[in-house]
Amino acid sequence: MNNKNPLKNRKKVAILLFFGTILLLVVFAGRIAFIMVKGEVNGEDLSQNLNNLYTRSSVLEANRGTIYDVGGESVAMDATSYSLVAVLTDKWSNAEELQHVTDKQKTAEALEKHISMSKEEILIKLNQEDLDQVEFGEAGKNLSYDTKKDIEEENLPGIVFEETPTRLYPNGIFASHLVGYAALPSGEKEDVSSTDLTGMMGIELAYDDILKGTDGKTIYQKDSFGYVIPNSKVETTEPVNGDDIYLTIDKRMQVYMENVMSEIDEKYDPAMATATLINPETGAIIAASQRPTFNGTTKEGIDQLWQNLLVENTYEPGSTMKILTLAAAVSEGVFDPNEYFKSGVKNVSGGPIHDHDPNGWGTISYLEGLARSSNVAFANLMEKMSPETWKEYMDAFGIGQTTDSGLANEAKGSVAFNYPLEQANTAFGQGLTVTAFQMLQAFTAVANDGQMMKPQFISKIVDSDTGEETVIEPEVVGEPISEEVADQTLEYLKEVVYNKNGTGVGYQIDGYEIAAKTGTAEIVNPETKQYYSGGTNYIYSVAAMVPADDPKLILYITVKQPKIKDGSTTGSGVVKEIYHPIMKRALEYLALGEEEDAEANSVEMPKATGISKEEALKSLEDTQLNVTVVGNGDTIVQQLPLPNETTIENQRIVLMTNGAMTMPDMMGWSKNDVLKVSEITGLEFTFEGEGYVVSQSLEPNANMHGADKITIVLETPQE
């Protein structure tokens, strides 16, 4: 028989449950109290987590600074590019909205109108199996906003765009290695802004910290439904835009120089070529070009040569070095123009020195030796000074030292000067290596009263938020010769151009006196380590200073190993084909800048950049100017003439937008008007005939971007 009392057992269980519940409540209360006091669970800050749950932030994007030419025309600027994508799968579509390509034939026909691919090529892309989406290669990349908008208006299901910040170089080939370029780091595509653009070359790289902005941020509170919480605190950190940089480069002169260099490059295909126009009084570079080069926006040609030839490439300068030897000899009082010497060959310890005519010209004066570019004459002058004195002058002229340009990888060159033959060779530019910047800097001392000016390519830096300007002042980096010596050296250098035996006779320009020195430097064969001989295996060059009595311009040109097929010209002839058009155009601009009297029907060009196309056209309504707009964008980014320049009524002016460059209808235009479009776009036009335009190889409104050489046919009205 069971003697346990069921009622008594139930009471024990109830008591246990009661006290157990109380214990649990105490534990829970203690835990809650602990959490309330500490605000943490397992080391995590609950208030911070709550704040993170309801706090939202948005990035306020900063702009990378714009690079302008000396007149305020855009050279490099921020832009947004769009990449075309076709979604092929229906996994993201629903009954209400189709998000994939449904009609491939219709889609291909529509896209063909807007990108440079045929309908058949587009269909091949769209018919790929086992792919969720496809891109369209280079034809579908770097699309402008206007092209994107036009495609969107076609209402094509499954056609979407990826947006990417990019850098626009609206002039195409435009001192490309000097300006450089900026791009997104490799592989970076999502959640990027203009501040992620990084300088990769040239000024874009050297001044990346100045150009690069800092993104801002807005922090605010939202509830669980996504609405901003009333009276909540909003914290805003304003973006800091990058500073703007103004170059010393004149866009008009630069575009013209690029066109000339492109013609020479196509005609003679030199291994390398440079042309640099500089103001010797300030060191300001007015225009600079090299070949090979590349298009800043498309990067076409960048794989040919990464090197900036102005500062990274070293070479033997040849006889243009004699400008410095002459100046040193004049300074030391050892150059007597009427003293005679035996030309042809000079024996020096280590080997003979030859003139370019090894038979020489008999016994001639040192002035004639300068005109004929006699190596023997200059080796004699070096000996008269003494090697030690000549080395001091080379050091004073900056030979063997960098110009401290600030550009990446600037070389300093080398001077072999241990033995008598090496010492003699340096007097006429062999056995030492230099950069183009070094030579330009040294030439300024001769052209600028003995004061040597640092090559300058930036005129000012402007805070894009406040407008505060930091002007880059011209910098004197030495005075290797006196003003009197510089003047006398210029006087002697005229013999090179005006003496009947001078090597520079072909560099004369009507109406101006030229002081110049030509050069033909030997090149070392990298395989044999010996100098090439014969053919066009030389670096041909000229350094010209104009006007000779008070130079305002120095033009320095080098051309390495041009390919001359028909024997119709010489290596120095190639240099002349670059020199004459560029120097003549530069002198025209110089004369225009010095004119004091404007014509009676003159018009001052207003600033039309940075505003909408509609605003710009409205501002020009009353100017009596013939306005042409290039491009299908909505904002004007370039103009020709530049702001505040004087033109005359009824002259054609050209405005370029931020959209794709479109070909104007040029029927009836003059050649000069066509060249204005070439100048503002950076594209090359070729002409057939004379007179006015009767046909153009690219149809009106066609996209000029990536177009081959554009041919314009001209005829006179009588024809």
Automatic annotation (TrEMBL):
Keyword Membrane attached: yes
Domain of life assignment: Bacteria
Membrane topology: Single-pass membrane protein
Location of the PASTA domain: 599-659, 660-716
CDD domains: PASTA_Pbp2x-like_1 (cd06576), PASTA_Pbp2x-like_2 (cd06575)
Annotated localization: Cell membrane
Protein keywords: Membrane
Gene3D superfamilies (alphabetical): 2.20.70.70, 3.30.70.2110, DD-peptidase/beta-lactamase superfamily, Penicillin-binding protein 2a (Domain 2)
Statement: the UniProt record of this protein carries the keyword Membrane: yes
SMART domains: PASTA (SM00740)
Main location: membrane
Entry protein name: PASTA domain-containing protein
Family, similarity comment: Belongs to the transpeptidase family.
